[in-house]
Amino acid sequence: MSGLETILSNPAYHDYLAILKGARNGFVYGVKVRFPHALIMAILFGRGDWQTRLRAIYRATKQHALNLAKFVSLYKTLLLVQKKMNGGKERSFDTFIAGLIGGYVVFGDRNAVNEQIVLYVCSRVVASFLSRAKAPYNMSSAGSSGVKPLPPDSTQFSIFAAVCWGAVMWLFNERGEAIQPGMFNSMTYLYRDSEHWNSLRTLLWHNN
């Protein structure tokens, strides 16, 4: 055991072990994020019997977890390769190149899970262009980096929120085929199913 601990604490192996732990963390996080989401979606919008729904939950959870594990490990591997090619020095654009290649290889296959993840990431990238407020978020810890994320400027965020909601409601009504299926189902449940009922039961208790 002491030999293993020596390897784990040896800086020479740090970058390689970080790839392994990155894969582990990606898998665990993917399960934590996708399983409850898939479960709720199966309850609200799932089709077929519960055996069919459970298989769908398993497939979505497995795909999300494995894809995150693959992406994190590939991303870290590409960073390490670039670092070694540059004489042990890291460059600011190394992260972009690693993310670009990793995103294409892992998330380039168009399917429901990948689409949701890419759209989520895209929304965060777009929102990052908003000016930042001067005071950071109220966070208990900034993590090992010492950096505390700053919230968006409140005025710009209000305008951004208004434009996003105006755009998505117009898309839902005029170009519903362009909206991601999971969001389309949610919006249908909220805005269209609420237009129809035939009794007190379907008005207040059951959707239909």
Descriptive account of the structure:
- Helix 2 packs antiparallel against helix 3 (50-85) and helix 3 packs antiparallel against helix 4.
- Helices cover 70% and strands 0% of the residues.
- The protein has eight helices and no strands.
- It has 208 residues and is mainly alpha-helical.
Which labels suit this protein?
globular; 8 helices; mainly alpha; 208 residues
Oligomer: single chain
Which range does the strand content fall in?
Answer: under 5%
Mean pLDDT over the residues: 84
Cα-to-Cα separation, first versus last residue: 61 Å
Strand tally: 0
- Helical content stands at 55-70%
Nearest-angstrom radius of gyration? 22 Å
Q: Extract low-pLDDT stretches.
A: none
Written as H for each helix and E for each strand, in order along the chain, the element string is HHHHHHHH
The assigned structural class equals mainly alpha
Count helical runs: 8
Shape label = globular
Characterize the largest beta sheet: strand count, sense, and whether it forms a barrel. none
Topology:
Elements: H1 2-9, H2 14-45, H3 50-85, H4 94-107, H5 112-127, H6 154-174, H7 181-192, H8 200-205
Helix pairs in contact: 2-3, 3-4
What's the quick description here?
This protein has 208 residues and is mostly helical. It is 70% helix and 0% strand.
